[in-house]
């Protein structure tokens, strides 16, 4: 597979993923969102079918089906659970940074590390609240 073909594949797949996520998180009802998502998939499948190389088409169509299956399995609770896990990981990493700066750095560096930790916690809480409210 040449470089241009790989770029085309990456572009088309990225376009599909971006469109799907954009539709998924748009402030619409579930029915409207699923309808828009199906339209996006249909358009993407049509564009893929217009590509010349059969191997490229099959690869992209397989990836589309994988993404489609994953998105169908995705719901608010799973997104919230994933976000909560990521938030906890972020909190732990920030705690490690603060503890490390306490041991190895100056009080000024420690203060900035603490500000980063507090900012990360604030942003994480905002994201989780936004997900819970949807």
How would you describe the shape?
elongated
Q: With helices defined by DSSP (H or I, 4 residues minimum), what is the helix count?
A: 5
Q: List low-pLDDT spans.
A: none
Distance between the termini: 43 Å
Number of strands: 0
Structural class: mainly alpha
How many structural units, i.e. domains? 2
Average predicted local confidence, pLDDT: 76
* Strand coverage percent: under 5%
> What is Rg?
21 Å
SSE string, helices as H and strands as E:
HHHHH
Assign a percent range to the helix content: over 70%
Task: Please give the largest β-sheet.
Answer: none
What structural keywords apply?
134 residues; mainly alpha; 2 domains; 5 helices; elongated
In short:
It is built from five helices and no strands. Helices cover 88% and strands 0% of the residues.
SSE diagram, text form:
Blueprint: H1 3-24, H2 30-49, H3 54-73, H4 76-104, H5 107-133
Helix pairs in contact: 1-2, 1-3, 2-3, 4-5
Mind explaining what this structure looks like?
By secondary structure, this protein is an all-alpha fold. The protein folds into two domains: 72 residues, no CATH class; 56 residues. Helix content is 88%, strand content 0%. It contains five helices and no strands. Helix 1 runs antiparallel to helix 2 and helix 4 packs antiparallel against helix 5. The longest helix is centred in the last third of the chain and has 29 residues. It is elongated, with a radius of gyration of 21 Å. It starts with a helix and ends with a helix. The relative contact order is 0.08.
């Amino acid at each position: 597979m040449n470089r241009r073909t790989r770029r085309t594949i990456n572009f088309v797949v990225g376009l599909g993923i971006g469109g799907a996520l954009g539709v998924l998180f748009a402030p619409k009802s579930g029915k409207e969102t699923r309808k828009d998502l199906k339209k996006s998939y249909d358009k993407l499948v049509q564009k893929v079918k217009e590509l010349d190389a059969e191997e490229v088409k099959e690869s992209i169509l397989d990836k589309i089906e994988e993404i489609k299956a994953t998105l169908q399995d995705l719901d608010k609770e799973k997104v919230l659970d994933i976000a909560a896990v990521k938030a906890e990981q972020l909190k732990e990493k920030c705690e490690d940074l603060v503890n490390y700066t306490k041991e190895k750095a100056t009080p000024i560096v420690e203060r900035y590390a603490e500000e980063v930790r507090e900012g990360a916690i604030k942003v994480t809480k905002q994201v989780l609240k936004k997900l819970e409210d949807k």
